[in-house]
Write a structure and sequence with these properties.
By secondary structure, the protein is an alpha/beta fold. It has two domains: 16-71, Vcp-like ATPase, Chain A, domain 2 (Roll); 75-260, Vaccinia Virus protein VP39 (Rossmann fold), CATH 3.40.50. It is 22% helix and 31% strand. The protein is built from six helices and 15 strands. The protein has helices spanning 73-78, 89-99, 116-125, 138-150, 187-193, 207-219, and strands at residues 16-22, 25-30, 36-39, 42-45, 56-59, 65-69, 106-110, 130-135, 157-161, 173-179, 194-204, 222-228, 235-236, 243-244, 254-260. Strands 9-8-7-10-11-15-12 form a seven-stranded mixed beta sheet, with helices on both faces. The protein has a four-stranded antiparallel beta sheet with strand order 2-1-6-5, with no helix packed on it. Strands 3-4 form a two-stranded antiparallel ribbon. Strand 3 and strand 4 (42-45) form a beta hairpin. The model has no long low-confidence stretch (mean pLDDT 92).
Length: 268
Amino acid sequence: MDGIPVMTEVIAAGDDVYLYLDRKRTYLVKVEPEKSFHTHKGYIQLGDLIGKEYGTRIASSMDIEFVALKPTLRDHIFKTSRRTQISYPKDISLIILYSGIGPGSRVVEAGTGTAALTSAIAHYIQPTGRVYTYEIRQEFQKNAKKNLERAGLLDFVELKEGDVTQRIEEKDVDAVILDMATPWLVIPHAYTALKGSGVLVSFSPTIDQVVKVVEALDEHGFVCVETVETFIRFMQVERGKTRPQTVMTGHTGYLTFARKAIMVQHES
């Protein structure tokens, strides 16, 4: 034993709980004393979970067993209220690693969308970092704010209404992360916003977009330019029948990464 006291974490009123029935049927619900949650497998009295340890098994009114888990970042991302397509964990994880962000980082993001990627960035830059996320559509921004509040990450995010193809207000940021239709138009502004050696990340669904981004990066003094595509394939595991699952998440988009090299000013 290392001498550090271990506190059991229990469910309190107002907490989110990730109710697990099976791999395909999961639910993110807020625990309220007088509230019941109804499913096709019966209802659950959510107040009965208050004071119980996360991981507790609870029976529905039909005596079907659910497990009350503590939501992870992944759970919050997949269960966000969606008005746009969310970023997938396979892409988010690579963005986080390759961008080099961490506690204290300052990051510009565009566009916000559902705030799935915003949530992941905010999770890793807290408690002293900041995400400046730009979105031109107010209805998306309102929905994103709700998702960030529910994930407990809004304090680390500044929601901004603006068009980054015109300008980025921040300077000396550690990373600029773009998930938008015309990222090549942002490259000059991203260069100005980034500190030396800062990282630019661009997510694009089509290869034509990638070509325009890479050409703009080469033109504006970026180095270490590389483009990748990620795949993830789950396995169906059962003795004597183990094989890849028939359906997989295939192409979602291409990720282009680059780093800012400071231009040399030649004396005339």
